[in-house]
């Protein structure tokens, strides 16, 4: 099993979040609010189930899944779409492929230098986020 993603993480960089949100069709007003948010990730593993919570002062979003088992995802409060999602390990990366109306949509999480990395991608746009573990420097 690759380095554990579990823990509470604070965002320290967020590259091309705007491009990712445009690709998702998020409205200009919502994009303006979302760009200012300090996102956090809380990643837990309960038995076989991963729980990834993305939290902010404005809105929260939670995904639950088992690796290798396709699930129905509703991106409530984000772009409000229904997706078929599948998360698998590809080397040291936990990779989610999100099939639906948008092409080439998904994300990948991995650990590098004690930081949590997340690439969010949609329609050729990639947003790269980095998080540091809460309470550690
Ligand atoms: C939509 C873009 C801001 C922005 C509008 C609302 C929830 C991997 C995966 C697990 C995500 C998070 C995507 C967040 C941006 C969507 C509300 C911001 C806070 O995480 O960790 O679900 O897909």
Automatic annotation (TrEMBL):
Keyword Transport appears in the UniProt entry: yes
Classification via Gene3D superfamilies: 2.40.128.20
GO molecular function: retinal binding; retinol binding
Keywords associated with the record: Retinol-binding, Transport, Vitamin A
Cytosolic fatty-acid binding proteins domain residues: 7-24
Signal sequence segment: none
The UniProt record lists the keyword Disulfide bond: no
UniProt-listed Pfam families: Lipocalin (PF00061)
InterPro entries per record: Calycin, Fatty_acid-bd, ILBP, Lipocln_cytosolic_FA-bd_dom
Family stated for the protein in its record: Belongs to the calycin superfamily. Fatty-acid binding protein (FABP) family.
Function: Cytosolic CRABPs may regulate the access of retinoic acid to the nuclear retinoic acid receptors.
Protein name as catalogued: Cellular retinoic acid-binding protein 1
């Amino acid at each position: 099993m690759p380095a554990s993603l579990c823990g509470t993480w604070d965002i320290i960089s967020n590259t091309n979040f705007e491009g990712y949100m445009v690709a998702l069709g998020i409205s200009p007003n919502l994009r303006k609010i979302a760009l200012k948010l300090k996102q956090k990730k809380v990643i837990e593993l309960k038995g076989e189930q991963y729980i990834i919570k993305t939290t902010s002062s404005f809105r929260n979003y939670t995904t639950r899944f088992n690796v290798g088992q396709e699930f129905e995802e509703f991106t409530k409060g984000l772009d409000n779409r229904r997706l078929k999602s599948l998360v698998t390990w590809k080397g040291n990366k936990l990779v989610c492929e999100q099939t639906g109306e948008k092409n080439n949509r998904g994300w990948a999480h991995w650990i590098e230098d004690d930081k949590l990395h997340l690439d969010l991608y949609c329609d050729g746009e990639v947003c790269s986020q980095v998080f540091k573990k809460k309470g550690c420097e």
